[in-house]
Amino acid sequence: MLTLNFTKFPVLETERLILREHQLSDANNLFAMRTNETVMRYIDRERPKDLLEIKTFITTFNEGFENGDNLAWVIARKEDPANMIGSIGYWRTDFANHRAEIGYMLHPDYWRQGIISEALKKTIDFGFQDMNLHTIKANINVENDASRQILLKHGFVKEALFRQDYYFRGQFLDSEIYGLLNPNH
Question: Which CATH architecture has domain 12-181?
Answer without folding.
Answer: 3-Layer(aba) Sandwich (3.40)
